[in-house]
Design goal:
Length: 161
């Protein structure tokens, strides 16, 4: 029981670590949008990469940081970036195929149905497995109680059940 628990904890930690390592984009510093606009107005930005609502900024000194664009449309920002000769890059929105959308939406339900079927088969009491057959053995003198357990023990004054 404890071994299984430790195993699952180790598996969970490894999976979380792998997820975090694959999700990192190499930018460790994050700052607010106002600082980004201030850096653009002071000509300190060399490159700006737009990815949905995230902006990865490379400054003239080579340092990088990330900021999140507010839900408001900043029409002046693009003009400011072009006037300050900032390299602007954008990434297209990721489009998933129909098959991947179906798998992602149906996988949790199929997984739960599979687990339910597995547990139902385990609770059937056999589940198609071979039954254990007791071999026919010749009783010896010390094993008489197997044929009539109550008789011998009651003679001695004991009660079994």
């Amino acid at each position: 029981m404890v071994k299984n628990l430790v195993l699952w904890v180790v598996v969970a930690i490894v999976m979380m670590t792998a997820y975090q390592s694959f999700n990192s984009n190499g930018v460790s510093d994050s700052t607010d949008y106002t600082t980004f606009v201030y850096d653009v107005s002071n000509s300190q930005v060399k490159e700006a990469r737009f990815d949905a609502n995230e902006i990865t900024v490379t400054k003239n000194d080579g340092s990088k940081y990330m900021t999140v664009m507010p839900p408001l449309e900043d029409k002046k920002l693009l003009d400011d970036l072009l006037n300050k000769k900032v390299k602007i890059e954008g990434t297209p929105f990721e489009k998933r195929s129909l098959l991947s959308q179906i798998l992602i939406s149906w996988f949790p339900m199929l997984f739960l149905v599979g687990v339910w079927i597995f547990f139902m088969r385990q609770m059937q009491g056999g589940g198609g497995k071979a039954n254990f057959v007791v071999p026919n053995v010749i009783p010896c003198r010390g094993m008489d109680f197997l044929h009539a357990p109550n008789a011998r023990w009651r003679r001695q004054g004991h009660e079994l059940w």
